[in-house]
Amino acid sequence: MSSLITPLITVRDLHFSYTSGLDVLSGVDFELRAGERVALTGSNGAGKSTLLRLINGLETAKSGEIYAFGAVRQQEKDFREVRVRAGLVFQDPDDQLFCPTVAEDLAFGPLNIGKSRQEVVSIVEKTLKMLKLEHLADRITHKLSGGQKRLVALATVMALEPDVLLLDEPTNDLDRDTKQHLITLLSELPQAMIIVSHNHHFLNKVATRQVELSNGRLLEQVA
Hints:
Strand order of the largest sheet: 6-7-8-3-9-10
Helix content: 25-40%
InterPro entries: AAA+_ATPase (IPR003593), ABC_transporter-like_ATP-bd (IPR003439), ABC_transporter-like_CS (IPR017871), ABC_transpr_CbiO/EcfA_su (IPR015856), ECF_ABC_transporter_ATP-bd (IPR050095), P-loop_NTPase (IPR027417)
Number of strands: 10
Domain ABC transporter: 9-222
Strand content: 25-35%
CATH class: Alpha Beta
CATH architecture: 3-Layer(aba) Sandwich
Protein name: Energy-coupling factor ABC transporter ATP-binding protein
Family: Belongs to the ABC transporter superfamily.
CATH superfamily: P-loop containing nucleotide triphosphate hydrolases
GO molecular function: ATP binding
CATH topology: Rossmann fold
Shape: globular
Oligomer: single chain
Number of helices: 7
């Protein structure tokens, strides 16, 4: 029955090259369906982060097609909705956090898409509680530890209540207990996910299937 459900995201024959001319993706095909948590693996430089950025419209493909949430996405205006509905958590949280305090960082996205002040207060409180970050609400963001920044970056995306999570190395800088909390949290969330990570224990606990980028192609991994 699941094969009859339209994928949330479909990538077809996607090609991408750096400005240096180096080919990174050479005909990638991929589908993400509701409820899936897909582990995206591969060696350093294989193009994993690039694929997430292409899906989110932060990079432009050389050729190929990206379908997201029932529509073809080609131009910048097409990806504005995608960035709200498919939240990308960057590998470096300093690229994501720019407001003075944690609560202000979480409020920025919902306010930007037209939520009322009252709605945003509720969203921020709910999101901080979900990630067990209530104690950081008024902290100055740039003074947080690396692990705290990583969780706050995830919280800023969760505050937008996306349909899909694109997670780039989400366990970096996290201690053992926080990794376990993240495993429990992600396993219980309803969102579909694409998760880039080199932490195989984490992926084995969270992912429902695994694909590997190798030589510019995406290969399905059999459990």
